[in-house]
Amino acid sequence: MWIEEAQAVSKRSWDILIPTIRKAGSRITVTLNPELDTDETYVRFIENPPPDSVVVKINYADNPWFPEVLEAERLHALATMPRVDYDNIWEGLCKPAVTGAIYADEIAKAQEEGRIGLFPYDPALKVHVIFDLGWNDKMAIGLCQRHISSLRLIEYIEVDHKTLDWCSAELKQKNLNWGRLWLPHDGAHGDYKTGKSAEQIMRELGWDVGIVPIQPVETGIKAARMAFGQLYINKTKCERLIQCLKRYKRDVPVSTGEPGAPVHDEWSHGADMFRYMASTAPKMVNEDMRPISYHRLTR
After folding, report:
1. Both 274 and 135 in a single domain?
2. If you ran DSSP here, which 8-state letter would residue 63 be given?
3. Per-residue pLDDT tens digits for 125-174
4. Which domain holds residue 204?
5. 176 CB contacts (<8 Å, ≥6 apart)?
6. Do 197 and 117 form a contact (C-beta atoms < 8 A)?
């Protein structure tokens, strides 16, 4: 079996496909131009290749028939393209983020400066919880600590079809030094079925709750960009969030080519949570917090 443009194959597709290749001597040939170093195909076959794999990197320099017209094109690209794009197209290197990603430059700088790594939980600092609410859509939850001018995202959780009491119980089981729990502005609105708001429910479950003020998305994006300079992300426990930030992009209509509003997709929930975190960061303190109540630790 030969799979071309394999960088786009998902984890679920590989999990289904690979067990079906059973015949003795059979093999899967995969060709790709990598996009992100977190893509499933790249991680599965390049970063962690199976023991019987043969991995070969081939570029223009390996082509003995590489024509002069393409060499001229390559040199022009080298002189005029952003280096990230040139390295991806001509050298086969991964991009720091997808084309058109809103936080592409910020993610690239954070990686260069070593601020995406193994940063542990500090028990001396409060852990603030930031929610992007969802049910059919994803519920995105970030755990953040603040120390002087730095922000530390120590864990990210993403679930769907889970109730707030389930989320509360999962969080409480971590036994961290909890600070305030932040909900988006719609968390203050009552649910039409119960009449209770998410804010009321989480308060009854023992949390010290704050509401993120409503603001335009573009204002939140600007705040998020500014927060990146202070940010340290745990690359293991926030792996999914890093993917979300790398893939959060604007809609670019073919007819105009002009970037529009951010795309609402599977990656936008984590990015929305990140915006809320950036907006509330100045209010994240490590003292004068009401102790969390564990009297209703239920699922």
Report:
1. yes
2. -
3. 999 999 999 888 899 999 999 988 889 999 999 999 999 999 999 999 99
4. 116-283
5. 121, 123, 127, 143
6. no
